[in-house]
């Protein structure tokens, strides 16, 4: 019997498996595909996801395979430079091939002891007071204490649970890819400027020497069940811009719709949902993969605490309470971006206005922090603004804060040098450092890097240790 079975070995499932293994949870990951996806698409890791990689010691490995781009605002594809003083040591966008990030996270999970079975599709499930029985498509039955569906937008787990997935069906299809251009940059800029007067989901942006990111409406080309071709892009570019710009040598090609849906619930008993199984939205702003990985980071330590026996009552329920509102916000901002990219006169006027408003640092910063995930604040009750937010990778003695979070434990960062984690020291590390780059006396970090307490008295600290880390030992 396993502690947790995870359906789906995409980035969300692999990240969750690794997080659970940090706490010695017995994990089996089931992946219905027999081999890793061959579909190559560049995805972007935003600032918060890059921070999470650093928190688990994965960033150097990921950086070897990615391409850094300067941080900037691109809400509704409106290009603006990043506002000054972004509060992160990792203020950049990292472009990386999706199969590569999935492979890196899967290898990380396996190195920590997770088991991965390919060609294993979930066909049925039953749960009781002790656990979940998972039936595979071939008839095999497996038993675990919990099941997590990380199996994508068409999640079998979600459907078997009967969880509603309300929202809006796709209205528009869009082609996206990276390819080389056969005409000079000046001609591309002029063509884009002329076509841009009509509005709509169309842009060409340089992403390397001679290589452009191309987005164009997909209306009237190919079957959506089939991968797009370079000829599809040529046809649609001619229709929208009057020229295909001599596109050739594609790096990757994809097609997406603007369906937007959110699961009614993230948990039914011993079965939970994460990633695209819980929420889908257009990829405008590149938030999807990041949202799923961050779901896994939030859920992993809480589910491990439940299994290891020290979780406070209702800790596991905070997963939905914290992450579902974040997904609602992402769905809303992608809806807004989709409207701003529409071709009507009203959306074009709103887009021109927003373009001017984004010249104000406050507006630019607000939208950038929303897209990149660094503006999230969980509701932990009344307190300083830092309470409930993630803590940046500040300097501590010795080195950097995130280097102290590799094991997925809580951390008491104590500038007073007189506090203690006491009976929670098996779950919470203590770093006494009066030189830490903080303007508060002490704080308690959860394993996901969010600030759970700020203060300087032991009694208040003990209350919050009990709230998040259960009863003390000894």
Provide the CATH top-level class of the largest domain.
Alpha Beta
Give me the secondary-structure category.
alpha+beta
**What is the total number of structural domains?**
3
Number of helices: 12
Using the 3D structure, state the CATH architecture of the largest domain. 3-Layer(bba) Sandwich
* Quaternary organisation of the protein chains: single chain
Shape: globular
**What's the helical proportion of residues?**
25-40%
Q: State mean pLDDT (0 to 100 scale).
A: 94
Q: Low-confidence segments, ≥5 residues, pLDDT <50?
A: none
> Superfamily at the CATH H level of the largest domain?
FAD/NAD(P)-binding domain
Largest sheet: 8 strands, mixed
What's the number of extended β-strand segments? Answer: 24
Q: Could you give the distance between the termini?
A: 30 Å
Rg from C-alpha positions? 23 Å
CATH-assigned fold name of the largest domain: FAD/NAD(P)-binding domain
Strand content: 15-25%
Would you write up a description of this structure?
The structure is a single chain. Strand 18 (267-268) and strand 19 (271-273) form a beta hairpin. Helix 1 packs parallel to helix 4 and helix 8 packs antiparallel against helix 9. The strands form 6 sheets. Strands 1, 2, 8, 9, 10, 11, 18 and 19 form an 8-stranded mixed sheet that branches. The protein has a 4-stranded antiparallel sheet with strand order 14-15-13-16. Helices cover 32% and strands 24% of the residues. The mean pLDDT is 94. The protein is globular. The longest helix is centred in the last third of the chain and has 24 residues, at 317-340. It has 12 helices and 24 strands. The protein has 3 domains: 2-167 and 261-372, FAD/NAD(P)-binding domain (3-Layer(bba) Sandwich); 173-256, 2-Layer Sandwich (Alpha-Beta Plaits), CATH 3.30.70.2450; 401-469, Glutaredoxin, CATH 3.40.30. With 474 residues, it is an alpha+beta fold.
């Amino acid at each position: 019997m396993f502690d947790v079975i995870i359906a789906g070995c995409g980035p969300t499932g692999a990240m969750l498996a690794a997080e659970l293994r940090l706490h010695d949870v017995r994990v089996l990951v089931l992946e219905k595909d027999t081999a890793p996806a061959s579909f190559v698409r560049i995805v972007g890791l935003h600032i918060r996801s890059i921070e999470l990689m650093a928190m688990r010691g994965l960033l150097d490995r990921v950086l070897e395979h990615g391409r850094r781009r300067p941080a900037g605002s691109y809400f509704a594809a409106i290009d603006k430079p990043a506002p000054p003083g972004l509060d992160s040591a990792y203020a950049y966008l990292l472009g990386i091939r999706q199969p590569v990030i999935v492979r890196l996270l899967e290898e990380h999970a396996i190195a920590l002891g997770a088991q991965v079975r390919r060609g294993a599709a979930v066909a049925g499930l039953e749960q009781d007071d002790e656990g979940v029985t998972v039936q595979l498509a071939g008839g095999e039955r497996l038993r675990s204490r919990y099941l997590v569906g990380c199996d994508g937008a068409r999640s079998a787990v979600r459907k078997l649970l009967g969880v509603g997935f309300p929202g809006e069906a796709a209205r528009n299809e869009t082609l996206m890819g990276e390819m080389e251009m056969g005409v000079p940059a000046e001609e591309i800029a002029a063509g884009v400027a002329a076509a841009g007067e009509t509005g709509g989901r169309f842009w060409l942006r340089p992403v390397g020497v001679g290589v452009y990111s191309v987005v164009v409406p997909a209306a009237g080309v190919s079957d959506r069940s089939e991968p797009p071709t370079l000829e599809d892009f040529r046809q649609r570019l001619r229709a929208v811009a009057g020229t295909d710009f001599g596109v050739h040598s594609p790096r990757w090609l994809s097609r997406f719709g603007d369906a937007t849906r959110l699961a009614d619930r993230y948990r039914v008993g011993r079965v939970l949902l994460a990633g695209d199984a819980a929420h889908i939205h257009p990829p405008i702003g590149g938030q999807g993969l990041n949202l799923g990985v961050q779901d896994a980071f939030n859920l992993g330590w809480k589910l491990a605490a439940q299994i290891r026996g020290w979780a406070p009552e209702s800790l596991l329920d905070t997963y939905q309470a914290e992450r579902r509102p974040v997904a609602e916000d992402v769905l809303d901002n992608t809806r807004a971006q989709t409207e701003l990219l529409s071709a009507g006169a009203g959306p074009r006027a709103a887009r021109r206005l927003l373009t001017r408003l984004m010249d104000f640092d406050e507006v630019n910063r607000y939208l950038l922090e929303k897209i990149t995930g660094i503006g999230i604040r969980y509701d932990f009750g009344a307190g300083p603004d830092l309470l409930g937010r993630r803590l940046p990778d500040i300097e501590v003695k010795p080195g950097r804060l995130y280097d102290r979070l590799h094991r997925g434990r809580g951390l008491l960062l104590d500038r007073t040098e007189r506090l203690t984690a006491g009976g929670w020291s098996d779950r919470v590390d203590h770093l006494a450092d009066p030189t830490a780059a903080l303007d508060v006396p002490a704080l308690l970090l959860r394993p996901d890097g969010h600030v759970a307490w700020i203060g300087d008295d032991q009694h208040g600290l003990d209350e919050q240790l009990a709230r998040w880390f259960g009863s003390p030992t000894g």
